[in-house]
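Inverse folding, one chain.
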């Protein structure tokens, strides 16, 4: 999504809960955490927040990520789309790469995922890659990131869990 989509949704959420809309600096901080979410999910996430919460959530980005996860579960078309799998050395044909990087904000390592830039296998999971980070293995390694083989992730129990994790920071 773009910043304007985010701003207008958050403004509506804060007005719904009768709270003062945060300043643009705060909105920018939050936006950087959730910009990977495609704008098609925004109406769903707005309803998710205003229907499910009794009051304004304290951690706005986290709530948006939870809403995005529910959107994917309710829209299996987004994750179950069948595309022919092509061999790829970057991602082992998964279309998604998990890696560990240094978090700019906190200066500590964080695990996250991106869409593989070396193949089109991501189409098996997503309609489009708008808003997602897209890297090849070489680009990640050049940035000093450690690439983790899919099978070495004990936290990832299924392909769906991996898909849900794209763009999210994983504790480890
Ligand atoms: Zn690939």
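Residues assigned per position:
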């Amino acid at each position: 999504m773009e910043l304007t989509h985010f701003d207008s949704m958050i403004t509506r959420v804060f007005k719904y809960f009768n709270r003062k809309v945060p300043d643009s600096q705060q909105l920018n901080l939050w936006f950087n955490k959730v910009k990977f979410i495609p704008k098609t999910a925004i109406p769903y996430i707005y309803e998710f927040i205003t229907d499910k919460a009794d009051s304004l959530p304290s951690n706005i980005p986290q709530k948006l990520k939870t809403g995005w996860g529910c959107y994917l579960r309710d829209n299996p078309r987004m994750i179950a789309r069948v595309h022919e799998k092509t061999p790829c050395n970057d991602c082992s044909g998964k279309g998604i790469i998990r890696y560990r990087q240094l978090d700019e904000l906190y200066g500590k390592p964080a695990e996250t995922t991106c869409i593989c830039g070396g193949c089109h296998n991501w189409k098996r999971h997503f309609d489009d890659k708008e808003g997602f980070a897209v890297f090849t293995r070489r680009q990640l390694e050049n940035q000093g990131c450690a690439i983790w083989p899919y099978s070495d992730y004990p936290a990832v129990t299924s392909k769906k869990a991996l898909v849900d994790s794209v763009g999210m920071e994983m504790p480890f």
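Residues 78 and 110 are 26 Å apart (CA to CA). Residues 88, 90-91, 95, 116, 118-119, 121 surround zinc ion (CB under 6 Å).
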